[in-house]
Amino acid sequence: MTKGWGARTQAIHAGRGRSGHGETSEAIFLTSGFVYAEAEMAEDRFRDRRPGFLYSRYGNPTVRVFEERMMALEGAEEACAVASGMAAVHAALVCGVRQGMRVVGSRLLFGSCRYILTDILPRYGVETELVDGADTDAWARALARPADMVFFETPGNPTLELVDCAAVCGLAKRAGARVVVDNVFATPLLQKPLDLGADVVVYSATKHIDGQGRCLGGVVLGSKAFKDDLLHPYLKHTGPSLSPFNAWVLLKGLETLDLRLRQHCENALQVARFLEDHPGVERVLYPGIESHPQHALARRQMKAGGSVLAFRVGGGKDRAFEVLNRLRLVAISNNLGDAKSLVTHPATTTHSKLAAGERAALGITDDLIRLSVGLEDAEDILGDLDQALRG
Ligand SMILES: *Cc1c(COP(=O)(O)O)cnc(C)c1O
Question: Is the CB–ligand 1 distance for residue 206 below 6 Å?
Fold first, then answer.
């Protein structure tokens, strides 16, 4: 019914229809289980002979609306929603993994994603190799040998480095690998990994999809075969289910995602340009401006630069902390994609577990500040940054 509709319409209408009450907003089916009119019906549902819900760990009507809406936005055949972004990344990577497999990932990753690749998978006899994600030749070298899975995020956290999605997906295909892309920074509205050759896309719905700091959530999108054969069986037996209430919150978030994201991107672009000219700033990293080393690639694979940027203030940790502590409107928090502008110091928080040498190799210097630009009046964000940087 939603074929041919634009993304904004999909974000508001895609998914299952109304219940018998004709409610305007989607109903919250806050129920753990379902009852059957007769024993035969229960038997049929368990045998997949009749459609219908069995138990909310397997599926839930409100959660399903969220999944169907995400499928429409992403252009994916299937989706499974889960309780957090990390549950999504974990399930996407682990549901098909076996001893002896080989996984290639980019080095610049959200901390917990990196932990799955470097600490969890090797315990189960999976070989993992991390490469410089921005260097397509490095991917080509790693994928000259057969591989089973490829994982990356683009733009990457916190330096906004990009991976050439189409090029890496091509290399991965030849190596026999399934490509899983963490598309959190771009959202389905700014970047479509499936169109660029990826097999599976994962989101932390906690970020822009909720976008208002209320709840955690995650979603994995891919083919029907991937869902039926690997993903759904893994989830239904391990249980990281999304609460129907949180699914409803995320649905309400989707209805305004396009509107919010446009404003996020507009504000972030203004902030990036302002910081570029500011005497208190040494370097700005934002895919949406010409000075980003991969700006041409950003223009090819993204519709806009996104809500997050990073900048270096020089002078090391003390100077960075000074700037953070002087901010009055922008709050110190490690979340991102929120209506509120949030700032973090990656070296001492999100990326503090990495060895100093590894941080340096990734460009996560002690003077680097990551800023998730919110939806406030741009002049107020600029004013707050200006007074903090002038102190
Ligand atoms: C936040 C985030 C995650 C994890 O999501 P949670 O909802 O916090 O579990 C994974 N990947 C990226 C890129 C993120 O920003």
Answer: yes
